[in-house]
Predict the 3D structure of the following.
Amino acid sequence: MADAAGRLAALVERATGSPLPLRVRAWDGSEAGPPPAPGAPLVVIRDRRALRRVLYKPGELGLARAWVAGEIDIEGDLYAALDALAGSIWERDDPAGGAGRDGVVGKALRGLSAARSLGDASVRAMLREAVALAGPGLPPPPPAEEVRRTAGPRHTLSRDRRAISHHYDVGNAFYERVLGPSMVYSCAYWEKPGGTLEDAQASKLDLICRKLGLREGMRLLDVGCGWGSMVLHAARHHGVTAVGVTLSTEQAAFARERIAREGLADRIEIRVQDYREVADGPFDAISSIGMAEHVGSAQYLAYAGTLYGLLVPGGRLLNHQIARRPMDDESGYEVDAFIDAYVFPDGELAPVGTTVSLLERAGFEARDVEALREHYALTLRAWVANLEDHWAEAIRLTTPGRARVWRLYMAASALAFEHNRIGVNQILAVRPERDGGSGLPATRAAWLAAPEGG
């Protein structure tokens, strides 16, 4: 096919009313779009099957399938490419800049797919041109990394176990390459400009321990304990005994090995267990770090109530959670198609105000909210750099598709935090004492102070 890139560029401009924001190289070697410039990213369409995927599944999911399959790639700066494409593909067309489903490209493709029911001859002509570019036949099946859906309601114990396994049981060695020695899969706390990822993760864990007021002899529950970093830090530096629960068997095995190596098996227990199954409270403190995004709006009040019931009066909860921007019509919120299919199945984000309200409805007193949005952008960029530095090994340890999922997801997420499309917050909440008090010192400086001997 001669000049496939030029034909595609003309089709996109007719459909959207805007020229291609980036230069494109098609499968026949042709190029179109803005003139080449040093350092400018280039979109490479390696196989015309990518267009068939998008025609049959307009918008983000079709594009994601083509990316995961390696049919679409970016040469050059991935962040610059995603920034340039965001307004056309991923962002909603509203001045608030909320995290949308798809933009003008998705809408145009949807219109082309529906053209058989329309009388507009120009739309039918665009559809014929798109089909000619894409080639005959059905799209290939979705890449193997995509979640295979099962019937039934979300956030049952069995469905949550499958969702967590999809995301976390992809090999501890793969995560070691991405996360680095800290093995912490949540936003770090960058106290010093130019510091290392490991230092920033240690600072985050210590900040949480201080917010919880951990000291020797206390009992900590870490919900969604991952590879055990929080419970290890709390036991090693603050003298607590701890229980960590996770639904990932691979995480649990890794955490137990770390704990045994450090000689802390008598003070830390790791369980493959849902937080809803924990029945041996009370605990003096609970940490939930990057786990509550998996809970779901329908279950969130019950989640908050369960944690409330597991705490002693005066016990503290540190809830560290990603938040989305509010919407005018909250009933219209949908889970991101790419994230739901490839990254966090059944994950949901809520505005921070909604989360605080639900925690207080469950009985907690919210004492402090700290936004760490900029910190997560830095963290994600560090993870992407780790992945790119170990790219060949990451592919060997998982699959090329899985590595591509993580690279796109983390880079796009870094930009979303940088542009304030999403945020992340640490909410410190307390189960009130019997007289209604919190048991906290009156000033933030006092309750953030390191414990004596800490």
User: Anything to note?
Assistant: The chain has two domains: 4-134, 157-448. The chain has 18 helices and eleven strands. Residues 4-134 form one domain. The two ends are 69 Å apart (CA to CA).
